[in-house]
Design a protein that fits this description.
By secondary structure, the protein is an all-alpha fold. The chain is built from three helices and no strands.
Length: 75
Amino acid sequence: MPLETVKQYSYDIKFDNELYDDFVSSSDEESKKLLVRKILESFEHLDKLPKKVKDFDKEKFKSDVEQFFKEHDII
């Protein structure tokens, strides 16, 4: 059986207790906005990748995701 290499990058976003409490006690709309804000903030981790990823424009990716959220009136 040949070995398969999968090129991917993943990470988790974890809420501390206070942020979790805010998330669950907020309206659906506010919870969505909170989650989106944390997702966008998490993109700072992309700047810490050890090397440039071939054929991946992280600034374009960040911009595209932000634009998506704007188009859906989440931010």
